[in-house]
Amino acid sequence: ALSSELEPHFFYRELRAIENRLGRVRSYANAPRTIDLDVLYAFPFAYSSSTFSIPHQELFRRSFFVSCALEVIKSVGWPTPISFYQARLRQGATVLIPCETHL
Q: Which of 8, 37, 42, 77 could form a disulfide linkage to 47, CB 3.0–4.6 angstroms apart?
């Protein structure tokens, strides 16, 4: 979890620049990669362009995100969006993975 004063498109460009500096090569869709930085969710915010969307289109299908996001949201005392609880119910407790919250 982090915050930024950058507009979404500029923030996206900064993430891509970091990936490039760390050796990310985009050879084909879903190719193995050294690093992958995504903006998955912004609370309470949505954004869409031809390049990317916030929330990420696959956000609630990623159990690693749902599980860890719930922990982070709880630890900072934010209200939890119902969409997170719904995603957890759809995925089932057996597919959720534990994560460590470092704040």
A: 8
Query: For residue 95, which amino acid is it?
Result: V
Name, in order, each residue with C-beta under 8 angstroms of 80's C-beta and a sequence gap of 6 or more: 70, 73, 74
For the beta carbon of residue 73, count every other beta carbon within 10 angstroms.
18
Q: What is the pLDDT of residues 53-78, one digit of tens each?
A: 887 777 777 777 777 778 878 888 87
pTM, two decimal places: 0.59
Distances (CA, A) of 51 to 4, 10, 57, 87: 19, 12, 12, 25
Q: With contact defined as beta carbons under 8 Å apart, do 19 and 35 qualify? A: yes
